[in-house]
Amino acid sequence: MPDLLRRALVVAGCLVLLVAPGAVGQAPTEAPLPIPAEAQPGPHFDPVAATNAYLATVPADQRARSDAYFEGGYWLLLWDFLASTAVYLLLLATGWSARMRDLAERVTRVRPLQTFLYWLQFLVVTFTMLFPLTAYEGFIREHAYGLATHRFGSWFGDELKTLAVGVVLGGIFAIAIYGVLRRAGPRWWIWGSGVTIAFLAITAVIAPVYIAPLFNTYVKLDDARIKDPILSMARANGIPASEVYVMDASRQTTRVSANVSGFLGTERITLNDNLLKRCTLPEIEATMGHEMGHYVLNHAYKAVLFFGVLTVFGFAFMRWGIGWALARYGDRWHLRGVDDVAALPLLALLLGIYGFVLTPITNSYSRSQEYEADIFGLNASGQPDGEALVDLKLGDYRKLDPGPVEELLFFDHPSGRTRIYAAMRWKAEHLHPSP
To answer: Average model confidence (pLDDT) for the chain?
Structure first.
């Protein structure tokens, strides 16, 4: 299912901090940190005043632009849901899905191959029908807000790579899930949950190391001024990595990013060339401390567990929903039962409804992990002003100062104000430790 695959890859990416193109390996600027007067250390240091001072450094037009971009994302959540829902209903109501199943059955009698051939048709059809919205979101809109750097051909090439990954990984998953559905009987939803959780876990492990390099080139960072402090921080926090890698994200985006991923010898510390271009060493250290926090706190595995629990409830919901839908529309849609691959759009539709309703819950969970990583990063790097300055750069595409309800519902990361205040509070405690 495209939405499920997308979620798996998002979890696998493990919470990326996504700012202007730069060359791989370029050293960060050595200029002093532009710390506002109210954020300078002193006997009357006030975290609230320091936070406000940092936020005040962002020009009004830049703030309005980032607010408009982020708030537009609220509507895109709805339009994505409605568009995918319409496509799934079209496939069902017109009998298109049943005809794709029939074609797969005419080509081969081998059930797993039938499933794969159906999945291939389903993925290509949905990709094509949703492509206009995908192009608007991923290319047109990103360029309109100055957040993208690639030409259409390069962007489309990455989309085709994503489609190919979906064909392979999604095909394996479809074969496995339908193999279970055909054998598990009334308990299909329990066994289906198990297969899905296993798929999420495996994808979470392999995606950063084996899938991400399909889209970017990774090279070792040679600049010791940047590499050595990062590796020192890693060793101090028990991360068994001996190299730091740089990815050429500037060919696609203007956002800064970094991550720490892998296990059992595949551990990798990665930052993108935009981070080197725009940020000082304290900002880089703050960012890498945050990413190391995700790794040390086992956030990737906890996320798999969390989404695994949601998956079980999701399959319970789908068990009820597909039973109702098949009883009411099964004959009209030419569906034979839950184990019929032609019912995949129905399963995807129900999963989409479930995921859309749970968006505030999944956002809150992700936001809590990000906040934990922020605190870890502050303690690991000791760079509160570096953290504040990076948070302002993230304000290029994230609303810096939302209302509390807005942050609760729509933010999968803490807002800029929340993160900067946490950094300034940390700074205050280290300026004036309690007796």
So the answer is: 89
